[in-house]
Structures are given as structure tokens and as C-alpha cells.
Specification:
The complex is a heterodimer of chains A (545) and B (368). With 545 residues, chain A is α/β, with parallel strands linked by helices. Helix content of chain A is 31%, strand content 17%. Chain A has helices spanning 21-24, 26-38, 67-80, 86-92, 96-103, 108-115, 119-131, 141-144, 149-163, 182-187, 204-214, 226-234, 248-251, 255-263, 321-331, 342-352, 361-367, 436-441, 451-457, and strands spanning 13-17, 41-45, 58-60, 93-94, 135-139, 173-175, 194-195, 199-200, 240-244, 267-272, 284-287, 296-299, 304-308, 370-371, 395-396, 415-420, 446-449, 464-468, 473-480, 488-492, 520-526. In chain A, helix 3 packs across helix 7 and helix 12 crosses helix 14. The longest helix of chain A is centred in the first third of the chain and has 15 residues, at 149-163. The two termini of chain A are 35 Å apart. In chain B, helix 2 crosses helix 4. The chains are: A alpha/beta (545), B alpha+beta (368). Chains A and B meet through helix 2, helix 10, helix 12, strand 9 and strand 10 of A and strand 10, strand 11, helix 8, strand 13 and helix 9 of B.
Chain lengths: 545, 368
């Protein structure tokens, strides 16, 4: 996020796209509700009529995967009506002309045909966004989990750059991180392209720095990203796997292929708090402590480094992950400090990554939380980025053209399946499924289907159905609801006995490798047995049937 | 919260006089807000800075010069030259009167009242005194015994109808699942058709529990556990679910090594401003779940996983990984970490991949 969460309440225009904020980030949604209560305008672009559309001024219910058309059409309107911020573009950006040329080919009237969003709505939202100074964009995986994910992000950032809505309080570009420490894991270098603090692994000088710091010559071969790893497991390039707190058998797209690939692994380590699905392939399983049982830091969506503190002892022999890792390294023969607590590990990280150089446990304990960059011990927390000019020097416009998703609906698979989270469960649900109360509120998986489609297929609310794609077949309950568009269906991915990711495609974004969880072709087959129907009362989707 | 917060300006739109002290205020501020900022304590029961004031509990009445009646400081706007008194006999007598009134319609004994959550009502009665114990008002507020929701218990005998919970539900969570119902001494907290909360628009955030000044809204599970909050130790930490980074307090029973419940830090102090969602507040059963892994496991010759010592398991990990690297090269290994683990753990994990096993094949799970 370029802005901070507390800035949201003071925004005057919110553009929320590809984020079901009330379910995936409920506390950020509270800030949005507060802003709207204050009089801020809210535009939602989402294929589903999510809760936020109840209080939105505009809902652009686009077809899944048509984001680039919609966003380019908004840019088209802004330029056509001269609402761009010329001086700001001049001073802070480059490559503007390429976007001017490209978006000329994306008039709203044509966009209406592709996206299903009325041209007039596109015009109104584009105008309101461009002409409101405190206008913020909020997005999450609905933008990025596409084969065109990077393009979608570029199309959004073009809107930000042409209106100059950056480096201002309550105005910016805000990806909402889906997990407690996605930001922190990236910050710490758990990615093949970066060493800690976003120092590029491809840069020999960076590798030299870490070769010296760790006393081991760094491997110059480029690393594989997660999506590539899954493929490399299948074709024999990978033979050994170490999984820490990740259940690839439920979380990765096209699970059947992942399972097959795991059969070919020679050695697999799983380190987790529960016996997860991946443990079936493990040679060694290591019991870890959960967040309430250890010390450390998480870094949230607005770059806020905050302390995690130990409240209770872990069960049995379980140990904190940091203790296990330090011990594996020691036994592998790597010379390294004898860490007594995570504070010492953080100090090592901070000494090697200038962005966090001024952050220490001592400061976190007295100041509560620090938003990086914080480069020196006396540097303040950074509330929002790009203040007084774009960080990289010049904001780079990136013209993008629409490309259709990897799969489209066809006669055999006439529906478009998107997947996502619900309020009551979380990811692989190893934690939330073990809450009796949450399981009571939402006991099993379901597929949302529009009444028009349901009627034609003879599917009734609460009936068991099979959802089928080119890759697999999954059984769950039908939830007949107008929350989805006609022709679209939606499923959560939290339920191990109904693995949605048997259906999804592992076609990935060309740059990031992120899987296209939001679009795949599917069909629904009613299950013709006498199983009793079961409806889910009190859910927002069921209220929209 | 942060140093370069654009709103933390020192600008002033005038001055009021409170108990003889000249206090600056900003446009739109109430007497209570100006007084609180200056450290002058005015007791409240139904006030919360996140909500529009209701002026319902009458606890915060103060004398305002030129006004015959006392005024609720939570709702009374500051204006230039306003003269306010917060410590006169009349103001103090009103506070004692209000406290007596509420206590007559509540659980009298403080220990009993605080069997789970702390009660601001009883704390204020101790701090400010009462006009004596008044005859007990016969309990008339309707309960919802048929509400089978798993988390939130409403105990009508502790309710003072201050409407903090219903206003929170309307204005902050904005789902309007609960409402004031009935009139006068019958006023209670109810749902549409007295449905169970799980069958309403309620999202089980439990904000009603956190704002309740008397413990009328309370955590079912902690109540069943049977240890009052004041006997638990609060450990401030960061939530382990989504990326908002809510701060929460684990309420820990040290002797039993148990997280009994989760509460939210006060509004205005952390990024979540006193709010939590259903997962952050209630989805903590997993911590002490019987299915937690408690021993290292090694796959034996028989193809099954068997409990082992840490020594055996860690040596096996190193041998196994080094074996693969010897047979197929360092880049035949891949390391996948979790964005749920801490920053330090992710740092050590990539250091392990890059330094101990010499490969760049390391990625965290949230990459896709």
C-alpha cells in the first residue's frame, strides 16, 4: 500500500476493485464504511455483487477477466475529457504518450460490449476518480490472480499516474495483502528475485554482499518462483522439497498435477502446526509453534512492522520455526550466530537491509509499530510513500492491451468459475476449520450460481452438485444467488473435502507466475440422489437469491 | 500513531474554559473531547469516540454557564468562550444518582458482575460513589435464550440499554444485526424476529462485547471457561490471519498455559482502532487443538510416519536434503516458506536455502 490503513477514513473517493473487502479484510472495510458514512463516494468493480456494493455509488459488475478493457476505458474517458493532471505527469512520469495512443482504442461504448458495464457508468466513475483529489484505489487478488495480472496492475497504475493521485494522504494505489505477513516474507527475501530488503538477486554486487555476510559463495543461477517450482517438480528438475507452513496440496492451482509431481520427489520435509495434506508425501514432519507461542514480527499491508509476542508454551515437543531453522542450518555445517531470540535475528536482517536499518525490537516495543522505510535509528515511521515525487524517480506509464483469459466459456464448459475467500474461513482453513463456532456458521463448501443459470440446469438452492472443469470434478452445495453474474459461478477454496483447486488452471501470469484462480471454464451437474438440501441461513449471498 | 500524520496539527478554533482552565478546541469538537485531550476526566458509560454520541446514559452531564440544565458533555459542542464546570456538587451528585439508578437494575456485587468481562459501571461506582443501594428493580429485560450462536452471549440482567452495542453494529460494522427493542425498563437488545445471531446479518465480529460497559455482551466460550478477565494476563500481539495487522490481546491463563480469549486494544491506540473481525477475535480454538503436531515424525522402512526425537529428525532433514543435492545438484532443491510465519523465520528460511543449501529456489507461499 502506498497509503496507510488509518488514511482510508479521510478519503473522498474509493475505487475498490477485485477486493471483497468486507470478507477478506474486514477491518479495512470498516474504515471504508466510515469514509462512506462521512460522505466519500465509493465505486466497486467486481464480477460479484459483494457486500460493499450495498453502500456503493457505482457497481461495475464486469465479466471476469475483462479488467484491462474496463480500466483502459476509464483512462480513455479521463484523457478524452482532459481530466488528466498535465503538470504532475510532466514532472513525475515518463512514457505517457504510449498510454495516450493505446487507450484511444478503448472507448467506453466498446468496453460495454466486452465488460458488460454500461458506458455511462464507466464515464461517471472515471470522472469522479479523476476530479477528486483524495481518491484512493484498493485492490487485491481479483486483479492479480489472472494470466493478465501484471497488465491489470499496470492499467490501474496508469490511472494513478495520469491523475497524480499519488504521494498524497488518502490518495494512492493500495494492494491489500491477503496474509498477515506476505509483506514481511517478501521484505525478508523469501523470494527468488530478491535478497532481504528488495536487493536484486540478479545483481552480482548484491550476491557478493551476502556471500561475505553469510560466509558462503552465493549461487548465481536464477531461482524458480513458486509456479515454476510446481512445474519443475513434475518434469524432474526438482527432487527435494522443504515446506514451512504451506500446504501446497490444497493451495496451489491444478492440484492433481501437484500431487502427481510429489510422487516423484526423493525427499520432502514438512514443517507445520497441523498434519496437513502435504504430510502424506513427507519423509520428515517437524512440529512447529503457532503465532501465540513465539516471538517475532509481522509486517502488514501498510508496511507496518509490528511485534508478535509469546503468550503460551507450544504443545509437546513443538518448537518455534526460527529455532528449528537455526538448528537445521547449524547441523548442515553453516557457521552462524547462536541466536538466543528472534530479536537477534531481526538485528541481523536490519543490518543487511537498509530499508529496515532503523527498526529494532526496542523501538517496536516503545513505538508500537513502524512503517518502513525506516533507515536509521532516529528516522520516523513512513506513513505514505511517494511523498514529494515518485520513488523510482519517474513513474513509468505502461501501455497494456487486452488479452482474453486462458480459458473462456464454451458449449462444453459454459460457465466461468472464480474462486476466493469467505469471512468465516481462511485459506487452507487448517486453523478456522478447527473452530467449532466458525464451522457451525459455515460448515461446508458451496458454489454460488445465478438463479437464471440454476433454473435452466434444474439446480435448486442447497442441492448437491458437481462442479466440473477440464482438470477435475468437485462436489459441493449449490447456493442460488444473485451475488454472481449470470454465466459466472463462484466457490471458496477453504474446504479439504471439496478441493476447489482440482478445478483451477495453473496457467500463470507471464511476469509473476501467479495462477489464474479467478477465471476457468466449468460446468455444473446436479447430483441426482436423495441427499437432503441444506441452505445456509444468514449469509449475505443467500440473502440475494 | 505515526509522526508525520497530517491530521496531528496543533491548530485551534478557539478556547473554552473548563474548571478554570483555558482549553483549545477544534471546529466540531465536543466539550468531552476537548476536556479529554487536556486530561480532564469526565466519566462516561455510553460514549465511544468511533460512534455518534447518544447522550443516553447521563453520566457525563456537566454544568455549562448560561444553561439552567446540566448538559451531556459527549454531545455538547465546544464554542468560543464557553464556561464549563465538571466538579461541582451538583455534577457529582448527578453522577452518584445515575450510578445508583443503573445499579438498582443490575447485578449488585462487583465480583459477580465481573465474572467474565470487567464492568465500567461498577468501577465508576467505586470511584465516584453512589447514593446508597436502592431497592432492586424487578428484572424486565427480555433475554434471547434460544440464540444458539457459538460466540456471543447476551445477559439481560447486566444491560443498561446504553446502546453502545447497537450503535457499533450500525455505524462501525454496519450490519445492523442487533437493535434496541421494547420501551422504558423493558428496553433490551434484540434481533429481527429474535433470531439467533447466526441467522441474521451479524458477522460475529464481537465488537458489541468490546464496547459493552457492563459485560452484558460477553464471550460464550470464556464464560464457560469460568475465569474472570482480571485474573488473566494480557499479551499484546499481532493477528495471524489477513494482512491488516490488527493488534490484539491474548488473554492468557498462565497456570493452565491457555489462551482463554482475545480482546481488542482500546480505540485510537492501534491500526485496528479497537476493532476486530470474527477470525481475529474468535478463531483461536486451533491454538490448543488436540490435533496439533507434538512430535517430530520420520517415515520408516514400512512407509509410515513414526514419532522421533528432534536429534533424529533434524539429522534426517540435513542428510535427506544434502543427499538430493549430491545426486542432482544444489538447484534440485526447492524451499517454500509461509507468509504466515514471522519475518525472522522467513529471513532464516531464505538464508537456509541460499547459504546452507546454496540455491536461489526459495519462495513464500503467497506468491500465487
Amino acid at each position: 500500500m502506498t497509503n496507510s490503513i488509518p488514511e482510508i477514513r479521510d478519503a473522498d473517493f474509493l475505487f475498490v476493485t477485485g477486493s471483497n473487502t468486507t470478507e477478506a479484510h474486514p477491518i479495512i472495510a470498516m474504515e471504508m464504511k466510515r469514509a462512506v458514512g462521512r460522505g466519500a463516494k465509493l465505486a466497486v468493480a467486481d464480477p460479484r455483487a459483494i457486500w460493499l456494493t450495498e453502500i456503493a455509488d457505482w457497481h461495475m459488475q464486469l465479466k471476469p477477466g475483462s479488467d484491462v478493457w474496463l480500466l483502459n476505458a476509464m483512462a480513455h474517458v479521463i484523457l478524452e475529457e482532459g481530466l488528466e493532471s498535465r503538470d504532475w505527469i510532466e514532472a513525475n512520469t515518463e512514457n505517457f504518450d504510449s498510454v495516450v495512443e493505446t487507450v484511444k482504442r478503448y472507448p467506453p461504448e466498446e468496453a460495454e460490449k466486452v465488460t458488460g458495464v454500461p458506458a455511462e457508468t464507466i464515464r461517471q466513475v472515471a470522472r469522479a476518480y479523476a476530479t477528486t483529489p483524495k481518491a484512493g484505489i484498493y485492490y487485491t487478488l481479483g486483479i492479480t490472480e489472472h494470466t493478465t495480472g501484471t497488465d491489470n496492475v499496470y492499467a490501474l497504475s496508469n490511472l494513478v499516474l495520469m491523475t497524480g493521485h499519488l504521494g498524497v494522504r488518502s490518495a494512492g494505489m493500495n494492494p491489500l495483502r491477503g496474509q498477515n505477513n506476505v509483506q514481511g516474507a517478501n521484505d525478508a527475501g523469501a523470494t527468488p528475485v530478491f535478497y532481504p530488503g528488495y536487493q536484486r538477486a540478479e545483481d552480482p554486487a548484491v550476491r557478493d554482499k551476502f556471500s561475505r555476510a553469510w560466509g558462503v559463495e552465493q549461487n548465481p543461477n536464477p531461482g524458480l518462483n513458486l509456479n515454476d517450482m510446481m512445474k519443475a517438480m513434475g518434469d524432474g528438475r526438482l527432487r527435494g522439497l522443504y515446506l514451512m507452513g504451506e500446504d501446497i496440496v490444497i493451495s496451489e492451482p491444478n492440484v492433481e498435477r501437484v500431487e502427481e509431481a510429489l510422487n516423484h520427489m526423493e525427499f520432502v520435509v514438512v514443517q507445520d502446526i497441523f498434519f496437513n495434506e502435504s504430510c502424506r508425501w513427507a519423509d520428515v514432519v517437524l512440529p512447529a509453534a503457532c503465532f501465540a507461542e513465539k516471538d517475532g514480527v509481522f509486517t502488514n499491508s501498510d508496511r507496518r512492522v509490528q511485534r508478535v509476542r509469546k503468550g503460551v508454551e507450544p504443545p509437546g515437543q513443538a518448537r518455534a520455526d526460527w529455532q528449528i531453522l537455526a538448528e537445521v542450518m547449524r547441523r548442515s555445517g553453516l557457521e552462524q550466530p547462536d541466536y538466543q531470540d528472534p530479536g537477534e535475528v531481526y538485528a541481523e536482517l536490519a543490518s543487511l537491509a537498509p530499508k529496515f536499518g532503523g527498526i529494532s525490537y526496542q523501538r517496536l516495543d516503545t513505538e508500537g509499530g513502524l512503517q518502513w522505510p525506516v533507515e536509521t535509528p532516529d528516522a520516523p515511521s513512513t506513513e505514505f510513500l511517494h511523498k514529494g515525487g515518485v520513488l523510482r524517480g519517474k513513474g513509468l506509464f505502461q501501455a497494456v492491451e487486452y488479452r482474453p483469459p486462458f480459458e473462456s466459456a464454451d458449449p462444453e464448459y459454459p460457465l466461468v468459475l472464480s474462486t476466493g475467500r469467505t469471512l468465516y474461513h481462511y485459506n487452507a482453513a487448517t486453523q478456522t476449520r478447527r473452530s467449532e463456532g466458525l464451522s457451525q456458521k459455515q460448515p461446508e463448501s458451496f458454489v454460488e450460481i445465478h438463479p437464471g443459470n440454476a433454473f435452466k440446469m434444474g439446480v435448486e438452492d442447497g442441492q448437491l452438485v458437481d462442479v466440473v472443469s477440464r482438470r477435475g470434478r468437485v462436489r459441493c452445495r449449490a447456493m442460488v444467488s444473485r451475488q454472481v453474474r449470470r454465466g459466472s459461478i463462484w466457490m471458496p477454496f477453504h474446504f479439504p473435502e471439496s478441493k476447489t483447486n482440482y478445478l483451477t488452471t495453473d496457467a500463470g501470469d507471464a511476469v509473476t507466475g501467479t495462477g489464474e484462480y479467478k477465471v476457468c471454464a466449468a460446468r455444473i451437474e446436479p447430483v441426482l440422489e436423495d441427499a437432503p438440501r441444506q441452505v445456509f441461513p444468514g449469509s449475505y449471498a443467500s440473502a440475494r437469491s | 500513531m505515526s509522526q508525520n500524520n497530517g491530521h496531528a496539527s496543533q491548530s485551534s478554533d478557539g478556547f473554552i474554559v473548563v474548571d478554570g482552565n483555558e482549553l483549545s478546541f477544534r471546529e466540531g469538537e465536543t466539550v468531552l473531547q476537548a476536556a479529554q485531550r487536556a486530561g480532564i476526566e469526565i466519566p462516561t458509560l455510553c460514549y465511544d469516540e468511533r460512534l455518534t454520541p447518544a447522550g443516553a446514559c447521563r453520566m457525563c452531564l456537566v454544568e455549562v454557564e448560561g444553561s439552567r440544565l446540566m448538559q451531556p458533555s459527549c454531545a455538547y459542542k465546544a464554542s468560543p468562550g464557553l464556561v464549563v464546570r465538571t466538579q461541582t456538587p451538583r455534577v457529582e451528585r448527578n453522577r452518584q444518582f445515575i450510578l445508583s439508578l443503573h445499579l438498582a437494575d443490575n447485578v449488585q456485587d462487583r465480583d459477580e458482575a465481573e465474572d467474565n468481562n470487567p464492568s465500567r459501571l461498577h468501577a465508576l461506582a467505586e470511584d465516584y460513589g453512589t447514593l446508597g443501594a436502592w431497592p432492586r428493580v424487578e428484572r424486565q429485560r427480555q433475554e434471547r435464550p434460544e440464540d444458539t450462536n457459538p460466540f456471543i452471549e447476551f445477559r439481560a440482567d447486566r444491560c443498561i440499554a446504553c446502546s453502545l452495542c447497537t450503535r457499533y453494529c450500525d455505524q462501525v460494522e454496519a450490519v445492523s444485526a442487533i437493535t434496541l427493542a421494547g420501551r422504558g425498563a423493558h428496553t433490551t437488545i434484540s434481533t429481527a424476529d429474535r433470531l439467533s445471531l447466526t441467522d441474521t446479518t451479524c458477522e460475529l465480529c464481537g465488537g458489541c462485547i468490546d464496547v459493552c460497559p457492563t459485560g452484558a455482551m460477553t464471550e460464550k466460550q470464556a464464560l464457560a471457561y469460568g475465569k474472570p478477565e482480571r485474573e488473566l494476563e494480557k499479551v499484546r500481539t499481532t493477528c495471524n490471519f489477513c494482512g491488516v495487522g490488527c493488534q490484539l490481546d491474548l488473554n492468557v491463563d498462565r497456570q493452565a498455559n491457555r489462551v482463554v480469549k482475545v480482546t481488542s486494544p482500546p480505540p485510537g491506540t492501534t491500526v485496528n482502532d479497537g476493532n476486530l473481525c470474527v477470525k481475529g477475535r474468535f478463531a483461536n480454538d486451533f491454538v490448543h487443538h488436540e490435533e496439533r503436531l507434538t512430535d517430530p515424525l520420520i517415515r520408516g522402512e514400512d512407509g509410515q510416519l513414526h514419532p522421533a526425537t528432534w536429534d533424529e529428525a533434524l539429522d534426517r532433514v540435513v542428510q535427506g536434503l544434502q543427499g538430493v543435492a549430491e545426486r542432482h545438484g544444489d538447484d534440485a532443491l526447492a524451499f517454500i516458506s509461509s507468509s504466515r510465519c514471522t519475518g525472522e523465520e522467513n529471513y532464516l528460511f531464505q538464508k537456509m536455502a541460499r547459504a546452507a543449501f546454496r540455491t536461489q529456489n526459495v519462495h513464500q507461499c503467497a506468491a500465487t
